[in-house]
Predict the 3D structure of the following.
Amino acid sequence: MARPLQYVLIGFLVLTLAIGWMSVARRTDEALVVYCAHDLIFASQILDDFERETGIPVVVVGDTEATKSLGLVQRLLREKDNPVCDVFWNNQVLGTVELADAGVLQPYRGSGFERIPEQFKDPDGLWVGFGGRLRVWIVNTDSFTADESKVLEAFESDDLSQMTIAMPLYGTTLTHFTILWDQWGGEETRDWYADLLKRGCQISPGNATVKNLVAEGVCKFGWTDTDDYFVGLDEGSPVAMLPIRIEGKTICIPNSVAMIKGTSKTEQAQQLVDYLLSERVELALAKSGSRQVPLGPIDEEALPEDVRELIPLAAESLNVTDSASARSECLKWLSELYTSPAQ
């Protein structure tokens, strides 16, 4: 009797696992698949709240710190004819514009679309921006004076071994370089970057590493985003920030959200898009550790003081999407630069 009982137990275990697997598969099939390049430490709570309040299950696919946004954009391009994703929450916008140009996105102009200013959305509703970040100088105040003229003077010096920036092949630093490419042209941008490296500027894997190196005093200053700066500040690090300017303009890079063309969950996707573009979510992002700057109308009195201080700087921003046409050439150059045998 021992062997038949053993078989019954094994059979019961197999059946239980099969039922569990079918349940997971069914949940995944029914769920809204969201590719999310925004830091999941900040995005997860918002998506969890949406799932709890609407009853719509959500499966989130993130990316690495170094390659996020670029990695997910490339994945969406590969999946164009057989889409897996329903909604793309990007942590920047130029990659989203590329997806729109490639026919990957599906237009939607809902309640969220209406509250966001024209500068931060596609007129046809292929994508909409929300919750912006500013490109900033981050300075270690124990070793350097957080004064714009002093930082710019140091930036022009022959020795930049105490400066660091993220590898420009990815994320907001790619956006930053794309803007330079658009403003200056390819030849001047290449020469400028070669000179930056010649003077010893350190290249870090990502903006978070830039923050760490400056916060720890390994470097005196660098380029990063406001969200990484605020993480350092909240950690008690001796850091300050100053806005980076190009031709007198700041750089405010919004998150962006878009529906994927071919989604079978159109209604659920529309609900999530409107949810992300709501005043409520922009306020939640502003109050989070990342301190995102609201782009739509909002009760400024409800905002943290340090976010209110960023609003006029964001209003001075150049229109990032004006440089979208330069992205492919700039990315091609950087890809060749960082994937050549010499690298």
